[in-house]
Design brief:
The chain has helices spanning about 40-50, 70-75, 110-125, 135-140, 185-200, 215-220, and strands at about 1-5, 5-10, 15-20, 25-30, 55-60, 85-95, 105, 145-150, 155-165, 170-175, 205-210, 225-235. It is of the alpha+beta class. It has 2 domains: about 1-90; about 105-205, Gcn5-related N-acetyltransferase (GNAT) (Aminopeptidase, 3-Layer(aba) Sandwich).
């Protein structure tokens, strides 16, 4: 297990677990299990979730996950399936998305911007727990990935994070305030992250898109390369 500043990573031949400091959610991917090992791995991941202080864990399955029938085995082991948050598209963007006129979008620079952005995300997602000022400050201090905002009428209208790698940027947590939807704020946050990926010499964006964001991303030029099925565990 690696305890990098602000992040927990645990990668084995069977799965990869990742959690960020202060975040409710963590994730398990790259599942390559044998049938007799499923319950053991569920127990291992539950222990990792507790150690990371996360509350809920997404298990991401694809056609490459093993063994056959893994989804049913995980459900039998106590995981849950939510039909409205089950099928996700793994998508890539390899060409420049359109610019959005009249919307400022960039990385957040101050704790005050970060606190406002978290309020926008909390309202948009509806399932993020309330945080004290001290908890928000600790999350800002330990943050590994940059958070981006788009401003309309002097307020943050949309937010999103990005993990930058040696091949491109992976987009996380894109959301728009209800009052700002349909005005280009979400698209502007995507474009800001594209511009930073280009500046880093890695002009590629990847994202796991749910039913709400997928149509918007397709219009921006993203293409599906894989489909994920999401299961959930909680402590």
């Amino acid at each position: 297990m690696t305890w990098a500043p602000g992040r927990v990573l645990h990668v084995t031949d069977e799965y990869a677990f990742a959690a960020d400091f202060g975040h409710t959610w963590c994730a398990v991917e790259g599942l390559r299990l044998r049938g007799e090992d499923v319950e053991r791995v569920v127990g291992e991941v539950d222990a990792l979730v507790r150690r990371s202080s996360a509350e809920r864990c997404s298990w991401w399955l694809t056609e490459r996950s093993t063994p056959d029938g893994l989804e049913e085995r995980l459900l039998d082991a106590g995981l849950t399936k939510h039909d409205d948050d089950y099928l996700h598209a793994a998508m890539l963007l390899t060409r420049e998305p359109p610019a959005v006129e009249g919307v400022e979008a960039r990385r957040l620079r101050t704790f005050e911007e970060f606190a406002e952005a978290r309020a926008v995300a909390r309202e948009a997602f509806g399932n993020l727990p309330a945080q004290t000022d001290e908890e928000l400050a600790a999350e800002w201090e330990h943050s590994v990935d940059p958070t981006y905002g788009a401003w309309l009428d002097g307020r943050i209208a949309a937010v999103g994070r990005a993990t930058f790698t040696h091949v491109g940027a992976y987009l996380i947590g894109g959301s728009t305030a209800p009052w700002a939807r349909g005005r280009g704020a979400y698209r502007a946050v995507v474009r800001a992250r594209w511009d930073d990926a280009v500046a880093a010499g890695t002009p590629l964006l990847a994202v796991g898109a749910g039913p709400m964001s997928r149509p918007i991303l397709e219009r921006l030029g993203f293409e599906q390369v894989l489909q994920y099925r999401r299961l959930e565990s909680a402590r």
